[in-house]
Amino acid sequence: MLRFTEIKKSFYTALWFMFLTFPIMVIRVNTIYNTVEWRWERLLYVGVATFFLSFVWRYAIQRKELGKKQVETGEGERVPILQRISRQKRIYVPCLIAAAVFVALFPFVFSMYQTNIMTTALIYVVVGLGLNIVVGLAGLLDLGYVAFYAVGAYSYALLNHHFGLGFWTVLPIGAAMGFLFGILLGFPVLRLRGDYLAIVTLGFGEIIRLILENWNEFSFGPSGIANIPRPSLFGLDLSLHQSIIYIYFLMVGLALFTIFVVRRLQDSRIGRAWIALREDEVACQAMGVDKTRTKLSAFALGATWAGMGGVVFAAKTTFINPASFTIWESIIILCVVVLGGMGSILGVICGAMILILLPEYLRAFSEYRMLLFGMILVIMMVFRPGGLISNVRRTYHFEGLQTKP
Amino acid sequence: MEYFIELFFGGLTRGSIYALIALGYTMVYGIIQLINFAHGEIYMIGAFTALIVAGVLSLMGWNQIAILIIASFVAVIYSASYGFTIEKVAYKPLRHAPRLSALISAIGMSMFLQYYVLLAQTSNFLPFPNLIPEFAFMEPVSHLVRSSEILIYTTTAVVMVLLTFMIKFTRIGKAMRATAQDRDMAMLVGVDVNKVISMTFIVGSATAALGGVLIASHTGQINYYIGFIAGIKAFVAAVLGGIGSMPGAVLGSLVLGWTESFFTGYISSDYEDVFAFLFLVFILIFRPSGILGRSDTDKV
Predict the structure, then answer these.
(1) Candidates 1.10.3470, 1.10.10, 3.40.50, 2.60.40; correct CATH number of A110-383?
(2) pTM of the predicted protein model
């Protein structure tokens, strides 16, 4: 099966990559002490790795082409295995019950540390689902999403610092602030085409971060705000352990609420308008959908969830500073959505769990986390643009309509 | 007045560097309508390669001019190779996919390259050796303009002229223009579109590498993050001038360089980046086609 030409191709690829990575991987110059460090062994690693990876790459490309051909000719319409499972009641009901039991017992079985990580993952589920409205449903690439997250976190921190408002009062305020900022920032830019929108939102994200960093009187600058209180429970005094469990369940509740709302939104009139707009803007406008209003609603609703997530984030960490809200945070959230599957709720949940929990448990790889995230974005786009669990398009089958010429 | 002149030349330097990066952006965008997010990283890799080569050669005791030339040459070759490879890996399989996919892939590539350099080299700022000698004839004005700045201006001007010449008069330039206008039609009349796209990436990356080498020896330090902000600002410049138009990219870069320089000089330096981004927002809202760009309408 393995032919000689294939080996030759891989060999050349390996040589090319060895050439490509040579200066940066192998040589390290110290310009202060004037020393040069040569790390030749790395060249070997690169060569061997790319030699084998290029086989995998070509195989995957081939399979993708094959799949495309099958779709074109209309044969072998395959439904991904996970979707087939999720459609059968006999399988998914027990799965759901098992998941519910697991979620309910989690903080009592596992340690405080693990509960904390799980809470973080749940925050990402909520913000990921929010971004999913913008990117997955409406097809608007928002690279400044973390700005709304920052808005939520800072609303809680500042309102609490100046006016002593509690978590439960600020949670809706944070959501409203997110919504408001979504409209404010969205209004001028939503007329732009997709790729310009990405850059402008990225710009807005950076603007908000830089303002938080430089406007010391307002936001306390780069040193951030400390001693943000954890959420209260009817005025009860909670120990640290109890309050971590409390935040965990609060987050579970918020995640369930988000899932419920996003599900309802997806099938609503406005949700279908988003999807239609994503697919074809011109045709959609011709059908009488108000483009600006539809886009704006997606943008603002997405921002609302970021605002809420931000409030919980501030309450959970009890300390925030502008360094938590860099562009990379936006990209991690985007990664969650892309890996899981744009437009699919289950996908986003899985994406968040994989991307946030795995690096925590694979400590050895934590250095390579961002490198891997970048790779995931590229690989997912090339091979599985629909994500791990892609959204199944609602299809209608017409019986007895097989008059294909 | 002296302060004004200082800011003027400072702005011209920034603008020239932005121009070297923006040319690549605009060429790639003109041909495949993709914002090549990783373009800033190509510039950064060019600077790193030059640093490494210069470090090794200066240990071997070569003279400064030779080091400058060889380091720039190697940097250009490597950046061009990276540009070529990135296109093959991350963009070519997505040529018929929705634009959103290619854009996300580009962001992933940008992130990957940044962290690749961070992990393989260092996250700290590295001092970059000053490779550009002080010219004797610059003595009288040396308090206003440094020799390295003069070199930056001339390089930008020469590159600009060469690129314009290439696009206007050579065979590959003609093929590039044809591909930019209508890719399918170009294919029908026998243009090898894949080759043209690769060539665009190679040329654009090479110019970015020149920018990287020059700015690094001008400012004297580099780290893995320099490409990101520079890339975004060069993109702002390209949009300002009208994306897809080469004279527009240079004009936009100079305008951005000067406004930034005067803004930071007279108003505030804390909000330098905020200013550039706000500038972008206003251009896109009020004149999305830029100064020299044609307004394009969506074809149905």
Answers:
(1) 1.10.3470
(2) 0.87
